Target: Methylated-DNA--protein-cysteine methyltransferase
Amino acid sequence: MILLQTKINSLIGDLYLVASEKGLKGVYWQKQPYQFHDYKNEKINYILSQTEKQLSEYFSGHRREFNLDLDIVGTPFQKKVWNQLLKIPYGTTFSYLEISKQIDNEKAFRAVGNANGKNPFSIIIPCHRVIASDGSLGGYAGGVDRKIKLLNLEKNRACL
Model:
């Protein structure tokens, strides 16, 4: 399988976009452990150009959800969690416990957190919108500072 990678600049740091011929494989922050370091080909295909366009629209406040073909690889549980994350409205947050209840597995809130942490589609599948039940932010692959910036970006534009 041929994978293509490109780097884009965003308001909150560089992002690496990785795509196969089937769809987007991931959106990764610099130094994120899941990043495809071995793929240096920066040839842009339609999937990468659409991802870059839609992310630019998101950061400028003109896009609240994404319409991209995703080439998702994960366990059935991870895919179930990631699908549920797509239902979190722009500008809002849900707790790991709330997500576990929504997927009919209330006791799996730690596993939800684990699946959330393995989400390869930063921003696209909005894992940054998931927080702890006590209101604390929890973790984020891009770092808590970026999570705060993403949540503030959405909060400030949600009422527009």
